[in-house]
């Protein structure tokens, strides 16, 4: 049972355990996956796949797809490290605490992460980078600012989970407003590889998405856990509540991941 | 084939404004009265293309990188950075202006590099979209070049 903590609540030992497990998964396969499998899935499922469905982004399944994606990573990190308490931390980017420190994700935020944690010499390699470099790139704050607490409050106040046409044009939609104004914006705030299709090359991807998942869970806690839309099995081009999300397989539906207590984790 | 010809036209045609302007006229005529692409008329340097040279096309240096943008018909625009191609995908999306003005729905380009930050295509409220996109991508690249994978198409 993982208890996902804020980066502000982590001990140095917990930070070290997390970064070491990430590095191990880079070079070790467990449960049939390694770290680069996650990058492959992100690149593949960003687009419409052969079923003509957008599974991961710009569609209602944005939240549940990433919830399942992160659950698998957390499981793999626990397996590879042999530490059943290992957890994905969340980064509340409205606060002042930064994950970009020497003892955590690396302190360089204005270009190549060329030394320290998540540099090549530390043992981090890039995969499918669309930038020709072996160094993880970050350009924190150069092209976008962070969402404020007021923006988060505004997004959390949307009452409709999602609605037709179920894409990135919907205005009155908790999912689309959260995806664009919180999720996209933080990708752009970090910049470098986080701005790219292969964003999971930067470990901060998980800390950011963990916070997004936490916000969805908070939203569910006040609006209802079973509130995913669309409900029926016949909406063209999107994943319905009881339809399996690729690549996660049979039974891995939005409905199946709606309750995090049944998925074995909680937020502290 | 068509793309190569199109590029050659720009390379030679853009050498001087007069030449480029002439080519635009020629291209427009071709676009209206033309056989389908692939017709190999030796008297026609555009090689059967429907494309016209567009005054918004650019071929210039930005922060030390050569950026080149071609506006083709039917939205098949092309962008290269130091001669390496970047595939563009058009999406309809909500734009939420940073200045607090009301959100609106428009069409933007994303690519492997600006994957979460669509750049609005040219419209009544936006100009020079392709150049803005090129500059944004140069900023993301920093000292580096596009990798081959950036040219891979993907749908949305
Ligand atoms: Cu993301």
From TrEMBL, chain A:
Its cofactor is Cu(2+). Belongs to the tyrosinase family. It comes from the Bacteria. Keywords: Copper, Metal-binding. The keyword Metal-binding applies. It holds the Pfam family Tyrosinase. This is Tyrosinase. PROSITE patterns: TYROSINASE_1, TYROSINASE_2. One of its GO terms (molecular function) is metal ion binding. InterPro entries: Di-copper_centre_dom_sf, Tyrosinase/Hemocyanin, Tyrosinase_Cu-bd. Residues 57-74, 202-213 form the Tyrosinase copper-binding domain. SUPFAM superfamilies: Di-copper centre-containing domain (SSF48056).
From TrEMBL, chain B:
PROSITE patterns: TAT. It holds the Pfam family MelC1. InterPro entries: MelC1, TAT_signal. It comes from the Bacteria. The lineage of its organism: Bacteria, Bacillati, Actinomycetota, Actinomycetes, Micromonosporales. GO terms for biological process: melanin biosynthetic process. One of its GO terms (molecular function) is copper ion binding. This is Tyrosinase co-factor MelC1.
